[in-house]
User: Fold NADPH:quinone reductase from Amycolatopsis rifamycinica.
Amino acid sequence: MRAVVLREPGPVEHLELTELPLPEVKPGWVRIAVKAFGLNRSELHTRLGLAEGVTFPRVPGIEAVGIVDAGGGFPPGQQVATMMGGMGRTFDGGYAEYTLVPANQVIPFRSDLPWAVIGQVPETLQTAYGSLTTGLDLREGQTLLIRGGTSALGFATATLAKDLGATVFATTRQKDRLDTLAGHGVDHPLLDDGTVAEQVRKIVPEGVDAALELVGTPTLPDTLNATRVHGTVCFAGMLSNQWTISNFYPIGYLPAGVRLTAYGGEADDLPAPVLQRHLDRIADGEASLGPVKVYSMAEIRQAHDDLEHNRTAGKLVVLTGRAEGAAP
Assistant:
């Protein structure tokens, strides 16, 4: 099979498209014929040497979608998604034509959507869904601020928040993407000029009810200051590649009465009915998780370079090119 191998951290040139033996099925594991995989900041952190617990050489990739090839009690040909659980870190991940994963992190679904569309959904939806439910407990009628609104996760969160009946604020650092946010249903697109809290409080003087921090620790103080007393900020992303706070003194750092939580989930945090419902809604034209840019496996270095330098809005998805059993 073809696979992308990272033998050691470094520049995009360290991503090598090569041939590897087909992974052998073992008890309790499922071999998946991968049709598409999404790119995530986690894999960028792995390539840059910023991720902990990764062993090399390694096939990266914390998610993939495709069909069951063998193992795990699933019928061959069953469409499935898989993510997390050590993929691309402690065992080989989704950047390959086949991947072998534990059965408990395989989520079945049925869809006629193109694999390029399906490939943008699993990990993004899991994090958006978990952030809004577990991280923020967002309710109908509340206001939500999304920092990093034109990321794949930002678009997905906006979709789910609007479904819940929330009023959505979302930021971008690029002025030409404000219309993209508005077109996606964001009520208040904001240009991130470092004073987002000030902009938010001109619209809602008391601050938003909830905020999702996807940029990282550089913008977290501004996000906290945009949130009302007894409101909640959930830290769930690190677009800036910065996720630690030096000399953290809670009383001096946190505005009085503002709550700070975090979210990071696994495959079992995305129930199969939730995944199926959102795939169906996308197919019916009722929902969108935002823009998607598609690459071939041969373009993996370009895809990673675009991810690293934030050249595209939305999700980056790689198609493996495996035709058999592909969705229409």
